[in-house]
Amino acid sequence: MLITIPDLLPPDVVRQCRAELEAARWTDGGLTAGHVAAHVKSNRQLALDDPAGARIGALIVDALGRNPLFMSAALPARILPPRFNRYEGGEHYGFHIDNAIFQVPGEPARIRSDVSTTVFFSNPDEYEGGELVIQDTYGEQRVKLPAGHAVVYPGTSLHRVDPVTRGVRYGSFFWTQSLVRDDGRRALLLDQDIAIQRLIQSGADAEIVAQLTGVYHNLLRMWSEL
Ligand SMILES: O=C(O)CCC(=O)C(=O)O
Ligand SMILES: [Fe+2]
């Protein structure tokens, strides 16, 4: 399931983050790629301990926690601290699948990358190319969103970033371990949650809403891992 989250960050926050990203120290992104991905990766990234990245990352994680669509779609158990990249002058990231397990920096814990997210920090008219192309069951989805918007997609999917041939594409990318590992089950739970919200808005009988809400929680109880 591929979900777009509009306005995750408001324009004033995006402007402040952009200024910090433009002034930050960027390093070769190939250095953090796995053996296979290193061959197809050409971009730049912030160091994992960069203070600007840590500040903006905390803003992102905070905004995710207050976003009902992200919470309902990703059902997060743990979010890896957000990372940051930039592409320009033909830089790109060829087709790959992300690592399944990531070490949480500075902690013994590891997370499973059930859900991938990109938050855009450049507007589409600022650069040419740079689409995030995600293969799903319906074919290729080409994603290029306004700054402050995010896309959430299954960690299991093959994806790439097309070459940026004009301007600069700034973004944040990170992984979430979900309470529900399987993307199909998460999609069913999201559908049911949205349907229940719509029933409530339409003034439906409270007993029916309670019954369906009970089904939601019982499915979550059956499928969740803590
Ligand atoms: O830049 C992006 O939107 C995605 C980056 C990516 O796929 C990765 O770093 O694994
Ligand atoms: Fe990736």
UniProtKB/TrEMBL annotation:
- Per the record's keyword annotation, is Iron included, yes or no? yes
Q: Where is the signal peptide?
A: none
- Residues annotated as binding Fe cation are H96, D98, H159
Residues reported to bind 2-oxoglutarate: R169
Co-factor remark: Binds 1 Fe(2+) ion per subunit.
Q: Does the keyword Transcription regulation apply?
A: no
UniProt keywords (A-Z) are: Dioxygenase, Iron, Metal-binding, Oxidoreductase, Vitamin C
Question: What molecular functions are annotated in GO for this chain?
Answer: dioxygenase activity
Q: Where would I find the Fe2OG dioxygenase domain in this sequence?
A: 78-178
Spell out the protein name for this chain. Answer: Fe2+-dependent dioxygenase
